[in-house]
Specification:
373 residues; alpha+beta; Hypothetical upf0131 protein ytfp; 2 domains; 8-stranded mixed beta sheet; 29% helix; metal-binding; GGCT-like; ADP-ribose diphosphatase activity; EC 3.6.1.13
């Protein structure tokens, strides 16, 4: 039987159970003297650091199933953690245990709270752990570590999807709980993942459909912004090479687009909109207005768009080109009269649908925005 000292996020019982695949045989409070639990700088998890006179509070779990130990080692290895021996104090006395730690201690900053972490990160961590554990035996911890930022982004997208939002009242009163899921497969996982499901769904006339197989490319939520200066009646558009049109065979795989970026794990879509506008357009947003929260292609994509109109000041032009070199971005910026862009939309010369949607929304609300100054 393995005894393991837990001091961080795995003290959250639902997460621990998801990682182990079952509840541990026994859980006891414990402490590790001469150490402290500290928040990792720029991270949502803690680190165990040596500290004279410190006490790291936690718990000891007993794993009597080798499979549970293997699952725990797999999960921890994704983060670069490996077991090390330690001796912890419990109400029954000293216990020899294993504790998972990285080879190189990370930089830390201040205290860490399990309750504060759970309030913000538990739901996302549960979703991410499900993907990590679902790939055990198919992908190595090292391979999973390489794509873990996208695993967390996909998890965050599922958390956002669970939040209620206004829907058209004509929709039938059915929910995902009415769908009968029979099997779920993930034959491919990397920056994106590809999922297949065998299911039956409720029919409008009553009863369930025959078993069907459906597949989708699993992406993340994204925030999109059309920067607009109502005082000058100008918009800013971005031009860049896009792999989608290129792989389709498009003769000119450069597109005009709004500002756009993936919603990072734990990030509010409006925060993403502000960050991406600064990074891609070189502009600071004055105000945001929601245009749409919508699926661009619900038949084959899980991707979900949060589309905004962003008020900006275009009196001082941003640099003609920009983008993050770390992401190999090569972006050209165009500041254009809105009437010009609206004319392109009417002539079918805008081939990115979120941009067309934003342009037509602005055409409808333009007078109000200009009157407000």
């Amino acid at each position: 039987m393995a005894q393991v000292f837990l001091y961080g996020t795995l003290r959250h019982a639902p997460l621990l159970e998801r990682v182990l695949g079952a509840r541990p045989a026994a859980v006891r409070p414990a402490r590790l003297d001469g150490h402290a639990v500290r928040a990792v700088a720029d991270g949502a998890y803690p680190a165990l650091v040596a500290e004279a006179g410190g006490v790291a509070e936690g718990e000891v779990i007993a794993l009597d199933d080798p499979a549970g130990w293997e699952r725990l080692c797999h999960y921890e290895a994704v983060f670069g953690y490996a077991p090390q021996p330690c001796t912890v104090e419990t109400p029954e006395g000293a216990v020899a245990a294993q504790v998972f730690r990285p080879d190189t201690p990370p930089a830390t900053e201040g205290a860490w709270s399990l309750d504060a972490w759970a309030g913000r990160w538990a739901a996302q961590s549960l979703e991410a752990a499900a993907e990590v554990m679902g790939q055990m035996g198919r992908m190595s911890p090292r391979a999973l570590a390489a794509i873990h930022p996208m695993i967390r982004a996909r998890a965050h997208s599922r958390v956002l999807a669970a939040a209620p939002r206004p829907r058209a009242p004509v929709l039938a009163p059915m929910s995902r709980d009415d769908v009968e899921l029979r099997a779920h497969r993930r034959p491919y996982a990397d920056y994106y993942s590809y999922d297949e499901q065998d299911l039956r769904f409720p029919r409008f006339g009553g009863g369930l459909s025959e078993p069907v197989t459906r597949a989708a490319l699993v992406a993340t939520d994204a925030a999109l912004v059309l920067p607009y200066d109502p005082r000058r009646d100008e918009v800013l558009l971005l031009e860049q090479f896009r792999p989608g049109p290129y792989m389709r065979g498009d003769l000119r795989p450069w597109c005009l687009e709004p500002v756009a970026g993936r919603v990072d794990p734990g990030e509010d879509p409006e925060a993403t909109a502000r960050r991406e506008t600064e990074e891609e357009a070189g502009l600071t947003l004055e105000r945001l207005e929601l245009i749409s929260r919508s699926y661009p292609s619900p038949g084959c994509l899980t991707e979900f768009f949060h589309i905004y109109l962003g008020r900006v000041d275009l009196a001082r032009r941003p640099a003609e080109t920009g983008g993050l070199e770390a992401e190999a971005e090569d972006i050209r910026r165009h500041v254009l009269p809105f009437d010009t862009v609206l004319g392109w939309a009417d002539a079918g010369q805008i081939d990115v649908s979120p941009l067309a949607l934003a342009v037509y929304w602005l055409a409808r609300h333009r007078s109000r925005l200009r009157d407000a100054g």
